[in-house]
Amino acid sequence: MANRVNQGLSTGNWRTDFSKLGTEAALKGMSSKATYLIQTSREYRDVTDSDIDLRRKYGKSLVSNYTGTDKKFIRMDKKISTQGLTTLNEVYYIYLAGRSYGKLAISVQRTFRGNTMTFILTKKVRGDKTK
Asked: What is the pTM of this model?
């Protein structure tokens, strides 16, 4: 994907400081079993079908780049996969060297204007049973 970004694949990302929103706003509506806070998100526009097929590898690269962990120590277990007429949504549990890190949500939207792929990485901050 890095090569495609350099070749003109338009991308956007949001660098929001979620700590400024406050803990109450971040935890509102979360499960009592675990709480996940957004770490980073990326959106890629005008992606090809081959990019969509490689979404899991791109997601692993995103996690690797964000956490500084080698890809061979990252495990992704699929939690949910739903498909609509023009959308595909997947959620993966992320494990770094065997320890639970969080979730990666991948959303693919196919429209007449082109395909869009969005990645949202969240970190587990409460309810971690591996500690």
From this structure: 0.72
For residue range 99-110, what is the model confidence (pLDDT) as tens digits? 999 999 999 999
Cα 115 to Cα 20, 33, 35, 56, 120: the distances in Å are 33, 35, 31, 16, 17
Question: How many CB atoms are closer than 10 A to CB 97?
Answer: 11
* Residues in CB range of 123: below 8 A, 6 or more apart: 36, 37, 39, 101, 102
Q: Do residues 79 and 31 make contact, with C-beta atoms less than 8 angstroms apart? A: no
Q: What is the largest CA-CA distance in the chain?
A: 47
Contact 37, 125 (CB under 8 A): yes
Rounded to 5°, angle at Cα 121 from 27 and 100? 80
pLDDT higher at 52 or 20: 52
Using alpha carbons, select from 55, 69, 32 the residue that is nearest to residue 119.
55
Distance between CA 95 and CA 68 in Å, rounded? 13
Helix (H) or strand (E) holding 131: none
